[in-house]
Amino acid sequence: MSKLLPHITLDSGPDPRHSIIWLHGLGASGEDFVPVAQALDLPQAMRFIFPHAPQRPVTINGGYVMPAWYDIAGSEIDAKQDAAGIAASRREIEKLIAREVARGIVPARIFLAGFSQGGAVALHSGLHARENLGGILALSTYLPLADATRATDISTARDTPVFMAHGTLDSVVPYSLGKQSAALLQRLGCAIEWHEYPIQHTLCPEEIRDISGWLARQITLNR
User: How confident is the model at residue 1 (pLDDT cuts 50, 70, 90)?
Assistant: First the structure.
């Protein structure tokens, strides 16, 4: 197998039979969501994988090099999207999924999760997966390349459960953009569970509880 992105691995118990690949936001690192993973209350052991995004120049930040899953051209994050960068990150996530399959975790027990830019890549990658995954957690994010997404593009993964959550006060990834993405995916036939909270571009304890409950349900369905 070709080289994988650097990553952190955390098993919540012995012999995990489920895996979740969790992608951080722009300028952050894999360490960001380790505390969230440790706070989850799940019925079975889970392998958490937290990859670090590649270092790349980001236009909106004056070309400064930082961890990023793709470039962002300006404040309207859904305009002039970096299709090549998004595709490259999707390929990296596909490698991590393939490694979990090689370890004996079936696709139906593999989850993708992500926050902000990482959530956009999780959504894009999960909906274009070759097989249905266990589910997708898309937090404070949006569907990238939405104008180019057709029902036929995601037909294989249309039954993959999707948990979308957004802060109504979010000024980084606008709440309206997240809501539009959820509505589009519902029109395309995806199984979307939407949650919203009176917060900014972050997570809150209620959201973590909702994530725990949703993951527990999906794990129970795919024992």
Answer: low
